[in-house]
Amino acid sequence: MAHEHGTHGHHHHDHTDIDWSRMAQHLETQAELFTPLYERALAWLGHKQTEPGLIVDAGSGPGVLSCLLAEAFPGARVVAVDGAEPLLDRARARAERLGVADRFGALAGELPGVLEDLDYPVDLLWASRSLHHLGDQRAGIAAFASRLARGGTLALLEGRLPARFLPRDIGIGRPGLQARLDALEEEWFAQMRADLPDSVSEVEDWPALMASAGLRHTGTRSFMLDLPAPTTDRARAYIAASLGRLRDVFGELLEPDDRDTLDRLLDLEDAASVHRRADVFVLAVHTVHTAVRTG
């Protein structure tokens, strides 16, 4: 699933529990906005894994990336895998709309065990921010690797720079708001990881973890999304939704002045809001790691 790290892409209740089905519209909007970044990543990937027969999107969510994979690799069959059936319904509908349904499938179940239900080895397994929702990430990578065909590629989208939407000083509140929100997100993410079943602390050296599963690391590259100010209404809506989720989750943990600043940024009637100000933008960097099964 094209999940954002931390709260930029998750709905929360009971602090770190996530209801992915309720997140469907936000996940779709987010992935559509980030499509230029993903298209560059898939073009790079296409030079590493040419003409795959079977592609699996492990943790596909509503299928935006699954369909991009189908478009980037027109000779491949794509299977979207996710634990939330309502999200897979959206993925199927998207594939139908985009004319790729004839080579598109969906598989419902929890990662990584559900991959045992695949009928064939996988030529390209794409896992976008799904691995960090598994308690034992080393075991998760080993399970992903075990489903690869000989010569097949595992592509992990893990690691990023925190997205930026606003200048350091926005003229209201104390400068550096987003850096303070990042710090809260890091704490949230650590707690989310600790709360997962069978959670194991792991050094996040993804190439080393891939190597421990018997794969040969073939590349790491970061891709940037740069939507400069003045940005589009679509980007503004994404920014507002992202900041709104942070406000909802961290409300009581925020300093009062930061809470007040967020309220103004989210107020449609306020000239200082992200809906109206001219200086909002989206700047984000995501990192993809690839490794191949040689044996």
In short:
With 295 residues, the protein is α/β, with parallel strands linked by helices. The protein contains nine helices and nine strands.
Q: What gap, in angstroms, lies between the N and C termini?
A: 28 Å
- Average of pLDDT: 92
Strand order of the largest sheet: 5-4-3-6-7-9-8
The total count of helices amounts to 9
Percent strand? 15-25%
Shape: globular
State the order of secondary-structure elements, H for helix, E for strand: EEHHEHEHEEHEHHEHHE
SS-based structural class? Answer: alpha/beta
How many extended strands?
Answer: 9
Largest sheet entry = 7 strands, mixed
C-alpha Rg (nearest Å) = 19 Å
| Poorly predicted regions | 1-16
What is the helical fraction, as a range of percent?
25-40%
Give an overview of the whole structure:
The two termini are 28 Å apart. Helices cover 37% and strands 23% of the residues. Strand 4, helix 4 and strand 5 (104-108) form a beta-alpha-beta unit. Residues 1-16 have low confidence and may be disordered. Helix 1 (24-33) crosses helix 8 (233-250), helix 2 packs parallel to helix 3 and helix 8 (233-250) packs antiparallel against helix 9. It has a seven-stranded mixed sheet, sandwiched between helices. It has a two-stranded antiparallel ribbon with strand order 1-2. The chain has nine helices and nine strands. The chain has 295 residues and is an alpha/beta fold.
Core attributes:
disordered N terminus, seven-stranded mixed β-sheet, two-stranded antiparallel ribbon, globular, 9 helices, alpha/beta, 9 strands, about 25% strand
